[in-house]
Amino acid sequence: MTNAANRVGSSAIRTPRRRSVDNGRQEELLRDVAEIFFQEGFTSVGVDDLSKRLRCSKATLYAIAGSKEQLVLRITKRFFASSAAKIEEAIAVENDSRKLIQRYLEGVGEAMGSMSPRFYEDMISYKPTADVYSDNAATATKRVREFIAAGVEDGYFRQVHGVFAAQLVGLAIEGIHSGQLLEGSDLTPGQAFSELGDLILNGLQTTD
Q1: How many CB atoms neighbour CB 47 within 10 A?
Q2: What is the pTM for the complete model shown?
Q3: CA torsion sign, 9 to 13 to 14 to 18?
């Protein structure tokens, strides 16, 4: 596969024609572009193609992002920020640490499941978006560490070294992130995060 970093900039030509686009139209276009990217990846889709398919001018697209790289990065950041907010909202009412971990990782899996394999490959191959993904993986590791520590303290989990357990989970998250743990399996990244939640709970639950 051609390196995404070499291809993502192929349509990143700035245009002097800038126009004002109202917030409602911006949101509509960002949603539509995100849908195309998540289904098809972003290295193979140029600004010319986007403008034709979305029936808007290139100047309109450049008004919401000055280049294709900026458009890709903006959509990626929006996706992870929105997903994180939804996951945190979903677990806010949950007090059981066991269910917290499960629901949190299921939320991560559901979010990742909205990405096609092509987008995922493009994302981890292009450094700016790979960095965004890495930052979010680190945040996920931190949250799981907090859940484990709370579960041990509350007696939901047996006594374990919380930092070590969380670092182990972090390695698993990184393995999913890099694709290494997906090799030889038929799991998507989203499914892998859900499986990780099940594995953690089976290993941490106290015996009756």
Answers
A1: 20
A2: 0.77
A3: negative
Spatial contact of 108 and 140, defined as CB atoms under 8 Å apart: yes
DSSP state of 207: P
Q: Does domain 76-204 fall into CATH 1.10.357.10?
A: yes
Q: Describe the crossing of helices 127-154 and 117-125 by its angle, rounded to 10 degrees.
A: 100
H/E stretch holding 36 reads helix 23-40
**Rg (Cα) of the chain, in Å, rounded?**
20
> For residue range 92-143, what is the model confidence (pLDDT) as tens digits?
988 887 788 888 888 888 888 888 889 989 999 999 999 999 898 888 888 8
**Which 3 state secondary structure label does DSSP give 193?**
helix
Q: Tell me whether residue 70 is exposed, middle or buried, using C-beta atoms within 10 angstroms of its C-beta: 0 to 12, 13 to 18, 19 or more.
A: middle
Q: How far apart are CA 203 and CA 190, in angstroms?
A: 21
- Between the two ends of the chain, the Cα-to-Cα distance in Å is 51
- 136 phi and psi, to 5 degrees? -70, -35
Burial of residue 79 (number of CB atoms within 10 Å: 0-12, 13-18, 19+): buried
Instruction: Give Cα 60 distance to the centre of its chain.
Output: 26
The kind and range of the H/E element at 70 are helix 68-91
Task: Map out the domains of the chain as residue ranges.
Answer: 4-70, 76-204
Q: Are 18 and 63 in contact (CB under 8 A)?
A: yes
